[in-house]
Amino acid sequence: MKKYTLLFFISLLWSCKPEDPTIAFKKQMAVDLGILNEKVSKLQQTVVTKQPQDSIQNAFLQARIAYKKIEFITEYFMPSATRLVNGAPLNEIEIEENMINEPGGFQVIEEYVFPKIDTANHQELIHQINKLQTELKRYQTLQDLEYLPSQCLDAARLELFRISSLGLSGFDTPLSQNKIAESKAALAHLPKYLDIFGEVDKDLAQTFSESIQFLETQKSESFDAMTCIKQYIQPLTKSLVNWQKLQEIAPMKDTRILSVEASSYFDTNAFSGDFYTHNAESYSNPAKSELGQMLFFDPVLSNGNGISCGTCHQPDKAFTDGLKKAKGISGKQVQRNTPTLMYAGLQSKQFYDLSVSSLEEQAEKVVHNPLEMKGNLEKALSLIEKDEKYKQAIQKAFPKVSKLETRHLRNAIASYVRSLSPFNSRFDQYMKGKGILDETEKVGFNLFMGKAKCGTCHFFPLFNGTVPPDFQKTESEVLGVFDQPRSKTIDKDLGRGTYNPQIADWHFAFKTPTIRNIEKTAPYMHNGAYQDLNSVIDFYDHGGALGLGIKLENQTLSDEQLKLSKAEKTALIAFLKTLTDR
Questions:
Q1: What is the pTM of this model?
Q2: Which end of the chain is more exposed for a tag (fewer CB within 10 A), N or C?
Q3: Contact call for residues 463 and 347 (beta carbons, < 8 A)
Q4: What is the Cα 12 distance to its own chain's centre?
Q5: 345: which residues sit within 8 A by CB, 6+ positions away?
């Protein structure tokens, strides 16, 4: 009898033993993936049987909600598969492999379902849903992966950043305009996964609850994105990071542009452009930046011909020159407007045509360009090595280098440019809780993230086209920019298509630059044709070239007119001016 009693208690103790977090994580994920597949199957059924429009649209929204509950997992652990589940409805071009991959997934399907069912393409809609079901099968391999608690909590943290930047702007739900419900669903479901790694404490539970309650009070047409981010999502992210510390789960150790320890986009040192060097030897430091600054403003880079990087990139104009198009070594206009170098270190591609992948490469191309600086880094190196002030600066910047090479000059210049990300605008101070914005400026931000749709291309908080929260890809857009505002003649510059004319999608495509310090960087667009912010906003308000009746089949900007009122345009400009660094 004692033997059986002992076995009973051992069995009882074993059954009470906490389940391995990895196993529990996979179980919850399996449940959620099953629900997602069920919802997509229901969507397919409603479409195949030609149910009423409301039924089809509701089935689509329910499938999207199911996806949002596991988005933090799929985006983190299977980003390539996720591109075909919830990627942008644009061709994915892989120039190295000479491949063009057609888009697929929820965003493509949305275009057939909203704002009304596209009955003329009924079979294509069914085809796209079938494609989505096929792609969802790839998620089955998620069960084969090993999950570390640090990875899972990192994925949850990044989802909060994703919601702030993409979810609240409606980036991936532009037509159904269901961003509030989807953001709420993502937030409400995260605690189920967090509980696996430790009981969610009162503070974290409360911040989740408050965030969800706030979203429940909001309506799409009057959504207060500013309050949501500042008063709810930011505190929630900080609570999550603090809770992770209490669970004694260390953060990830890898190097990224957004720090693995950041609890807010506005933390000190939250961003690091060194990520894009892909080489620890090239990482920046103050001494390198100081040497780079000396070189930046020295005509020695142009063979002493009186022009330096600073000739076109002037600090008082946020490192632009105020000209329609830059003037090169001969005094003649070059092809494009001078872009700001502020925050240039926080994007994965450089130049308007995204033709280079590093600031080092950018520096070399500009110096050697016969129409720009017409310089020679080898000659510049031979000159500065004889200069005493440079000798000292070089020793500080590269103390372990026995023989200086031109790559070190490139790296120094790039390091200086990477230092030009101060994050000290009035907007930054407000988001840090150290300043104020007036009501008009707040309304302007909400328009930026909402009705004006600026935030779907100029992503908060860098306000450039580098997609958060992993910041690995810098996007380009085809807007249909005119050679003069309202001229109805598209500027002839092919942008990315200049070097790849065989790719029609890239004709007239240009990098989405940061609009931080936009108050100082007129004139605007790649050709400098737009003299003020009013003319730029007017262009977007009318839906670019397509919206103004010009045929441009590959335009990526929506041709839908925004219908911004005069007061809304004023508020939008008021907000943009808060992005000026002090």
A1: 0.94
A2: N
A3: no
A4: 51
A5: 273, 276, 359, 414, 417, 418, 419, 420, 421
206, containing H or E segment:
helix 202-216
Q: Using alpha carbons only, give the angle 276, 281, 286 rounded to the nearest 5 degrees.
A: 85
Are 74 and 137 within 8 A, CB to CB? no
Residue type at 218 in one-letter notation: Q
CA distance 454 to 24: 40
What DSSP designation does 102 have? P
The DSSP annotation for 31-96 comes to HHHHHHHHHHHHHHHHHHTT--HHHHHHHHHHHHHHHHTTHHHHHHH-HHHHHHHH--SS-EEETT
- Kindly give the residue spans of alpha helices, DSSP state H, lying in 347-425: 359-368, 377-384, 388-397, 406-418
Q: Which pLDDT belongs to residue 8?
A: 45
User: Cα(148)–Cα(171) distance, rounded to whole angstroms?
Assistant: 30
Enumerate residues 6+ apart whose C-beta is below 8 A from 6: none
Amino acid at 561: Q
Tally Cβ neighbours within 10 Å of residue 529. Answer: 21
Residue 222 has pLDDT above 80, yes or no: yes
Query: Which residue in this structure is represented by tokens 């390091």?
Result: 415
Q: 397 and 419 in contact (C-beta within 8 Å)? A: no
User: Vertex 365, ends 359 and 367: CA angle to 5°?
Assistant: 100
* Residue 2 pLDDT greater than 80, yes or no: no
Q: Encode pLDDT of 180-205 as tens digits.
A: 999 999 999 999 999 999 999 999 99
| Residue 478 DSSP code | E
Write down the residue that tokens 């598969």 correspond to.
81
Secondary structure of residue 282 in the 3-state scheme: helix
**What's the angle, vertex CA 485, arms to CA 482 and CA 488, rounded to 5?**
50
Token duo for residue 356: 């280079």
Residue 99, Cβ neighbours under 10 Å: how many? 10
Mean pLDDT of the 67-85 span? 96
Task: For residue 570, give the 3-state DSSP assignment.
Answer: helix
Give the count of beta carbons closer than 10 Å to the beta carbon of residue 85.
23
Separation CA 7–CA 4 (nearest Å)? 5
Cβ–Cβ contacts within 10 Å for residue 427, how many? Answer: 26
Residue 302 to residue 296: CA distance in whole angstroms: 11
Q: What are 256-300's pLDDT values in tens digits?
A: 999 999 999 999 999 999 999 978 899 999 999 999 999 999 999
Rounded CA-CA distance 163/415 in Å is 31
- In this structure, the number of other CB atoms found within 10 A of the CB of residue 502 comes to 8
Residues in the chain: 582
Please state, in angstroms and rounded to a whole number, the distance separating the CA atoms of residues 532 and 525. Answer: 10
Cβ contact 446:139 at 8 Å: no
Q: Is 269 exposed, middle or buried (0-12, 13-18, 19+ CB in 10 A)?
A: exposed
Alpha carbon distances (Å) from 393 to 304, 308, 310:
20, 19, 19
Q: Of the candidates 255, 286, 281, which has an alpha carbon nearest to the alpha carbon of residue 408? A: 281
Element holding 123 (H helix, E strand): helix 122-137
pLDDT single digits (tens) 323-375:
999 999 888 889 999 999 999 999 999 999 999 999 999 999 999 999 999 99
Q: At residue 126, does pLDDT exceed 90? A: yes
DSSP 314-338: BGGGTSB-SSSS-B-TTS-B-SSPP
